[in-house]
Amino acid sequence: MKVVRYLAGGREGWAVSNAETGQWHGCTAETHSYPGSVDAQIRKGPEAFAAAARAMLQQSAVDVDAVQLLPPVGEPAKIICVGLNYTDHSAESGFEQPDYPTLFSRFNTSVIAHDAPMLYPVLSSTLDYEGELAVIIGKAGKCISRATALDHVLGYSVFNDGSVREYQFKSPQWMVGKNFDGTGAFGPYMVTADELPPGARGLKLETRLNGQTVQSANTADMVFDVESLIVTISAAMTLEAGDVIVAGTPSGIGHARDPQLYMKPGDVCEVEIEGIGLLRNRVQHADAAA
User: Are both 205 and 249 inside the same structural domain?
Assistant: First the structure.
């Protein structure tokens, strides 16, 4: 199923797509039959989430083109990003391919939704795109085995890991360059794992800047697949329901091009993953959005 979070009339709601008709059904928080937020339902576990989604299918139709979309998960406890997860990207970036995932964190203040402005920072002109697969955890676990790893995945979405390269490389830790406000686009919705190949393998991933394809790859090319990432991360820390793993970008980033191709105000960046959806954002000066 497909699940979308949205704002309508200043109220948060969510909706589920009817697989047969393609029509979205749902409601906002003031509705008597509202089951609770997406985040709350995810934290209750897969069975509770599925029951709430079925209840949403009985609600009124929602025109998702007439509402303001929100990121698929509102308040993940952890957003864990993976660097250097495609061999060609590691090579273009000048890094030797690591044999252990390169992990770093994003914070909620950096995350924006589909069609929200991606903020061009005041401090730097090196805002770059990175199209990535997002993995949404639906069941908590620690020291998860590879055999059961995918049982912990609720669904998948699309992420644009907008990176301010100048600040990413000011120190060996990438955190600052990966966490400027309004640079991490997430959406437009979540597709549950049962609708996709195991581990979301074999899906075309494409990034387009102003209509020009700048990244084209397949999720099967990831060095560390979804199962491996879950095993590795959960060996060190508990993965909680609602956590998000952003699984890495392929080659084609603007920083590695000659001449370099950074995003600028007015640009439109789209990331599309086969079977999941198309995430679109226009770049806007950060001071204009203040």
Answer: yes
Q: Is the pTM of this model over 0.90?
A: yes
Nearest to 263 by CA among 189, 188, 212, 187: 212
Start-to-end CA span in the chain (Å)? 36
Domain extent at residue 84: 79-289
CATH (domain of 186): 3.90.850.10
Query: 272 is written with which tokens?
Result: 């599309």
Phi, psi of 244 (to 5 degrees): -125, 130
Whether residues 64 and 173 fall in one domain: no
Q: What is the pLDDT of residues 3-52, one digit of tens each?
A: 999 999 999 999 999 988 999 999 999 999 999 999 999 999 999 999 99
Q: Answer yes or no: do 63 and 95 share one domain.
A: no
Q: What's the angle, vertex CA 219, arms to CA 213 and CA 225, rounded to 5?
A: 150
- Rounded Cα distance between 261 and 259, Å, is 6
244 Cβ contact partners less than 8 Å away, ≥ 6 residues apart: 73, 76, 78, 79, 80, 134, 135, 136, 137, 186
